[in-house]
Amino acid sequence: MEGDYCSTTISSEKRKQRQQQEKPYRGIRMRKWGKWVAEIREPNKRSRIWLGSYTTPIAAARAYDTAMFYLRGPSARLNFPDLIFKEEDEDEVRDMSAASIRKKATEVGARVDALQTSSLHDHHASISQSKSSSRVSEPPDLNEFPNPESSDED
């Protein structure tokens, strides 16, 4: 029986590690095709509020945080507690409808997703630019007709 207990413990530990890799933040999951999605349960209901589909896990997590803050208030357990905008009145925050919460969360998620993907593209562009600038010769202009004097057939 000890072997059964040990294997169960090991498999549950492996499952936890796999979940941490698959779900780096609370309230999000990754689709099979690589998109990150966020959703949240409404308090005291079985229904969920769909918070959107995002390119980056951070954007999905920020959408979740926004919705969680509007549902639970300042005591909510968030992925990024320092990044929540807390100027609104607490009573006003808790009286929002599911549609209003979804709208706020998807706005934040979309904004973060745009920033994340543009900074990622900028990073890749700067890498490819630095690689191309390290070349000795300029790439040929493919829109220009070849000059017969500079042909390599000599």
Question: What report would you give on this structure?
Answer:
With 154 residues, this protein is mainly alpha-helical. It has a domain at 28-119: AP2/ERF domain (GCC-box Binding Domain, 2-Layer Sandwich), CATH 3.30.730. The protein is built from four helices and three strands. A three-stranded antiparallel sheet has the order 1-2-3. The termini are far apart. It is found in: Nucleus.
List the helices and strands and how they pair.
Layout: H1 2-22, E1 28-30, E2 36-41, E3 48-54, H2 57-72, H3 90-94, H4 98-133
Antiparallel strand pairs: 1-2, 2-3
Concise account of the structure shown:
This protein is mainly α and 154 residues long.
List keywords for this structure.
GCC-box Binding Domain; 4 helices; 3-stranded antiparallel sheet; 3 strands; mainly alpha; AP2/ERF_dom; DNA binding; transcription regulation; elongated
Approximately how much beta-strand content do the residues carry? 5-15%
Envelope shape: elongated
Can you tell me the CATH architecture of the domain at 28-119? Answer: 2-Layer Sandwich
Q: What name does CATH use for the topology of the domain at 28-119?
A: GCC-box Binding Domain
